[in-house]
Amino acid sequence: MKLEIQNVAIDYLISAENDYAEKDNLFISINALKNNLMDDRRIVSLDVRVIDKDNDDTRFVNVIDIIQPRCKLKGGQNFPGFVGDIETAGKGITRSLDNVIVVVCSASIGKGRTVQKFFDTGGSGARLTEFSNKNILYLCGETAEDISENEHEDVLRTAGMKAAVYLAELAKSLKVSSTDIYDLDLNIKCNSDEGLPRICYYYQVYAPHYDYGNIPSKPLYGQTVTEMPPTILHPNEILDGAMSGVHIQAYYTYDNQNHGLIKELYKRHINKEIVFCGVVVGVLSMNEMRRGFFVKHAGKLIKDVLNADGAVLTKFHGGAAHLDSALIAIECEKLGVGTSLHITPFTDVGKLADNLVYIDDELDLIIAGFTYFEPVDIRFKYKNILGGPPESFASSPRAKHCNTPLGSEHLKIEALFIAGYTDFLGRTNLRAMEY
Amino acid sequence: MIDRKIRVVHYINQFFAGIGGEEKADTGFSLKTSPTGPGIILQNELENKGEVVSTLICGDNYFSTDLEKNAEKGFRLIEKYKPDLFIAGPAFAAGRYGPSCGAMCRIVSERLKIPAVTAMNVENPGVEMYSQHTYIVRTGVNSKDIPDIVRKMVKLSLALIENKPDPNLVPPDDCIPSPYEYDYFTRNLIRNVFTKESTAEASVGLLIKKLKNEPFKSDVVKPPFDKIKPANPIEDMSKAKIAFVTDGGIVPMGNPDGIPSRMSTIWKEYVIDDLLPMEGERQYEVSHRGYNNFEVLEDYNRLIPVDHARTFEKQGRIGKLNPTLFTTCGNVSIIKKSKIMGEEIAHKLLEQKVDAVILTSA
């Protein structure tokens, strides 16, 4: 499968009376875009704004998704299953805008939600996230009363994706600044480089115990994945809009579009250091028998179908996710597949090993991603707060003792709640270390 | 930052003070107003940046009879010198000297809020006891290394005094010198650190090394877990008193005792019939935020099968259901704190003559 991403570097995103593109700038009519998005009758009101990259006085709160503007030029559907019709993503040609993001916020805080991320465009927190220096198309809206809280977020996320497509399509006359080719055939006969290790990626994409009100997210082609057994995906599908963000915000749509591990594995494949032999996506199971089946099945796909020598495994949000991904890593090691297992510690005191919930001699390569609850102090005299009131909290009211309200100029927060600072998927240059 | 000569107080034992060896280990405290023993090397290393204004000396045996009390004594002797920096040792692998250095560093840094640095070998018991309370530079076992070790201690000390933010860390703890650069034992903290390579680059690079049988270093090394011998099995369940303990975070409505949603260091004991009555309105909620507690809120038996236990008691299948249960929140728990809570709960269970526990978790 071959995917060509044509990158268009945007200098400024500018609000204007009409839509047009000129000299690396995109001029966008907010009214035209709003009318387009409010075709969805479930949206009752929508606040749409442009915040350009020079802005350094805005705080975004209650961020529920961040999306890179992209559109298909050939060979597929835009965000299939979310915006476009169902079609396999990851082939043909996609236009992608650099230096622009769509930020979707939810002013209506869902009941029982525990994660509300934020980020700043200025102040001491700006350096912690790449999102602070981008041109931003901001969306925040209210939805009809009769839809559920999860559906509320899905509606806003889909609106964000539509806006992302709108922006990317608007850039048709601008020059392509660079092109990335993702060309990989998973057919084993086509990967006959002798001596190169075959490495696949196990992507734990979901954990059903985060289904708020027992309603699952729909992160894969707009479908639920709660009962899904381990499944082989082509990595291009993940890069090209098959996967969205999720309501617990383990990852945003942007994180999948720019998946750190997939891009690294591709880089090593192109450099002929490895054969990147595919991706297995899996879901944590809360049922012991099913978990056993999922573990065995993942091992079988990795070893017998992808014929991998090695596997990198990442985990979803939470503690049970550690156990589940470790069981799959142990199964891989038993089958002779070497593993690199990612964990994300939680605490800011103790040892990294305290966060292991298993003990197995086979697991000898464990990568510590970020630690969730490291306290962070941020000082920012913001002028605008978008996405919710200053009284918003980054987590449920019961965690008030950990964090100050998001409207605080001297904000005491924990690492997990800063959008773009932490990343489960390997993109950021952040590691948890004992100090 | 201090813009004058740094005032340094140094602590050493009787041996390094030249008083004597083991035969003089019972010697009590004494003070000198000049550098002594390794303090001379310390002064040379400080050059004109600092002055060793006082040397506190104590015999190893004397100090180790009561670390806390003698640290207090030692502190009272040196506080009048108003130090900007406190140095102790280096102690290498000396098993009494190390803890006394650690104890002195701890009390001085806590009371005077100044940097305190010592140095020990990994085998020194002082490392386990004090590494989270003070800065302990790593040493080997050979005291011939004193000049190099003192150099490292001074380098770390000056970094602590300078208190310069490290751009790879974030506030409020961004002024901590890197334990990897300054070679000291980590202090039981975990921090997010910006690195040159992304997590993906590191992970894939290390996996390639592993697959090629080349040396690689894991971020996380499996800890040495204790092996706990299980208690003897219950011989006659019909006579046994059974208690429930849970880390699922079940608490009275309103959570009056404030069991936190995560990193809990407290547990509480509640009367089962008050918390989980068989009839009437729900009297409980769940403080634990790490699982979907929807089904527990519908039916407490999903977390604690109390109703079945009540039935077993009536049927004589168990001797007695303990009238109280013990609850905490096991979300993102710190292992050391959990061990302490477990010991405290176990004592209570023993007082109440409980024979067996059903421990539930979410």
Compact summary:
The complex is a heterodimer of chains A (435) and B (362). Chain A is of the alpha/beta class and 435 residues long. Chain A is built from seven helices and 22 strands.
Task: Detail the topology: elements first, then pairings.
The complex is a heterodimer of chains A (435) and B (362).
Chain A: E1 2-9, E2 12-16, E3 20-22, E4 25-29, H1 30-37, E5 43-51, E6 58-67, E7 70-74, E8 92-98, E9 100-105, E10 117-120, E11 135-143, H2 149-170, E12 178-183, E13 198-206, E14 231-233, H3 235-239, H4 253-257, H5 260-270, E15 275-283, H6 288-305, E16 310-314, H7 320-334, E17 338-343, E18 366-368, E19 375-379, E20 384-386, E21 410-414, E22 430-434
Parallel strand pairs in A: 1-8, 2-4, 6-20, 9-11, 13-15, 13-16, 16-17, 17-18
Antiparallel strand pairs in A: 1-12, 3-4, 5-11, 6-9, 6-10, 7-8, 14-15, 19-21
Helix pairs in contact in A: 6-7
Chain B: E1 6-13, E2 30-32, H1 38-46, E3 50-58, H2 60-64, H3 67-78, E4 85-88, H4 97-112, E5 116-121, H5 125-130, E6 135-139, H6 146-162, H7 179-182, E7 190-194, H8 199-211, E8 241-246, E9 250-252, E10 268-271, H9 272-275, E11 284-286, H10 294-298, H11 306-315, E12 320-327, H12 335-351, E13 356-360
Parallel strand pairs in B: 1-3, 1-4, 4-5, 5-6, 8-12, 8-13
Antiparallel strand pairs in B: 2-3, 9-11, 10-12
Helix pairs in contact in B: 1-6, 3-4
